[in-house]
C-alpha cells in the first residue's frame, strides 16, 4: 500500500506523518509536500531528500491518490477553494487533519462529491504516540479507509467513529486531553515541592509516574479501575489520597470539563464552516 500522497501544508503535523510513513517503509518519492514557507521545505528536504517539495498544490495533487490537508483550520476554506479545480480533475481521497472543520464543509469548498476522511489527532503524534479518531463520509471505499488509517497509524493509535459528530467528543477527550494530563503533572510536581522535594526531583517523579502508569495500563489486560484497586491497600497511603480526590469531586469535574470542550468544539465547527 504505497499510494502517492500529497501533503498540503508541511508544518509540524505533516512532518510527523511523513516521518512515520517513511519509517514504515513508504517510499519518499511517493510523497509530495506543498508549503509556501521555504524554511519548512528546507527542513523536509534535509531530512528526506527523496521527497517532492514545492509551492504548487495543483501540481502535487496531479500526482496523488491521497491528499492530506495539514494547514491551520482558519485558512482551510481558502486553501480548499484554491485547489478545487485540481482536486476535481484527479478526485483523490481527501484526508483532513484540521481540528474542528467538518467533512461536509471541506467537500463543499473542494467542489463536492468527494471521498473525505476527517481525523482528529493530538499533539503526542509529534513524538509518534498520538491518538487519532477518524470518520469517513459515505463515498470512502474500504481500501481508501485502510490507506487513511495507515497514514495516521504511522504516528500512533487510531480509532474509527461511525458518526462524524462523535469527533466532538474525541476532541474533548484525546484532542484536548494532553493538556489535562499536563495540568495533573504540574499539580503533582507543585504538591511534591510543597512537601519539601527539590523542584527537579518532583518534576522527574511526576513525569515518569504519568508515563509509567499509562504504559502499565496499555500493556495490561486489566482496566484502569482494577489497576487502581491493586495499588490501593486498605488503610494505606494511596487509599487516603484517593479519598481526598473522590470527595473533592474529581470525576464530576472531569465530566464537566469534557462537556465544556465538546460544546466548544461544536461552536468552532459552526464558525469555521460558516461560508
Ligand atoms: N500540531 C498538532 O499536534 C495537531 C494536533 C491535532 C490537529 N492538528 C491539526 O493539524 C493541522 C496542521 O497543524 P500544524 O501544527 O502542523 O501547523 P503548522 O506547523 O502551522 O503547519 C501548517 C503549515 O501550512 C502552511 N500553509 C499555509 N498556507 C498554505 C497553503 N496555502 N498551502 C500549503 N501550505 C500552507 C503553513 O505555512 P506558514 O507558516 O507560512 O503559514 C505551515 O507551514 C492543523 O489544522 C491542526 O488543527 C495539529
Automatic annotation (TrEMBL):
One of its GO terms (cellular component) is cytoplasm. Its EC number is 1.5.1.2. GO terms for molecular function: pyrroline-5-carboxylate reductase activity. PROSITE patterns: P5CR. GO terms for biological process: L-proline biosynthetic process. The keyword Ribonucleoprotein does not apply. Signal peptide: none annotated. Keywords: Amino-acid biosynthesis, Cytoplasm, NADP, Oxidoreductase, Proline biosynthesis. Belongs to the pyrroline-5-carboxylate reductase family. This is Pyrroline-5-carboxylate reductase. It comes from Thioalkalivibrio sulfidiphilus (strain HL-EbGR7).
Amino acid at each position: 500500500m504505497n499510494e502517492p500522497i500529497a501533503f498540503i501544508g508541511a508544518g509540524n503535523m505533516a512532518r510527523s506523518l511523513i516521518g512515520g510513513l517513511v519509517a514504515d517503509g513508504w517510499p519518499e518519492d511517493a510523497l509530495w509536500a506543498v508549503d509556501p514557507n521555504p524554511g519548512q521545505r528546507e527542513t523536509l528536504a534535509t531530512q528526506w531528500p527523496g521527497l517532492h517539495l514545492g509551492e504548487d498544490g495543483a501540481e502535487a495533487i496531479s500526482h496523488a491518490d491521497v491528499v492530506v490537508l495539514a494547514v491551520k483550520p482558519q485558512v482551510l476554506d481558502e486553501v480548499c477553494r484554491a485547489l478545487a479545480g485540481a482536486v476535481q480533475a484527479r478526485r483523490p481521497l481527501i484526508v483532513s487533519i484540521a481540528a474542528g472543520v467538518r467533512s461536509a464543509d471541506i467537500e463543499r469548498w473542494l467542489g463536492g462529491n468527494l471521498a473525505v476522511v476527517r481525523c482528529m489527532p493530538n499533539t503526542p503524534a509529534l513524538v509518534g504516540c498520538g491518538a487519532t479518531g477518524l470518520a469517513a463520509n459515505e463515498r470512502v471505499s474500504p481500501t481508501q479507509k485502510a490507506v487513511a488509517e495507515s497514514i495516521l497509524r504511522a504516528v500512533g493509535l487510531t480509532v474509527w467513529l461511525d458518526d462524524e459528530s462523535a469527533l466532538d467528543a474525541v476532541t474533548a477527550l484525546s484532542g484536548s486531553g494532553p493538556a489535562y494530563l499536563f495540568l495533573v503533572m504540574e499539580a503533582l510536581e507543585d504538591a511534591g515541592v510543597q512537601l519539601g522535594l527539590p523542584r527537579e526531583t518532583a518534576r522527574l517523579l511526576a513525569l515518569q509516574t504519568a508515563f509509567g502508569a499509562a504504559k502499565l495500563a496499555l500493556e495490561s489486560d486489566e482496566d484502569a479501575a482494577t489497576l487502581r484497586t491493586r495499588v490501593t491497600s486498605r488503610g494505606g497511603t494511596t487509599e487516603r489520597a484517593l479519598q481526598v480526590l473522590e470527595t473533592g469531586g474529581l470525576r464530576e469535574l472531569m465530566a464537566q470539563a469534557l462537556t465544556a470542550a465538546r460544546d466548544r468544539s461544536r461552536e468552532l465547527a459552526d464558525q469555521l464552516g460558516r461560508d
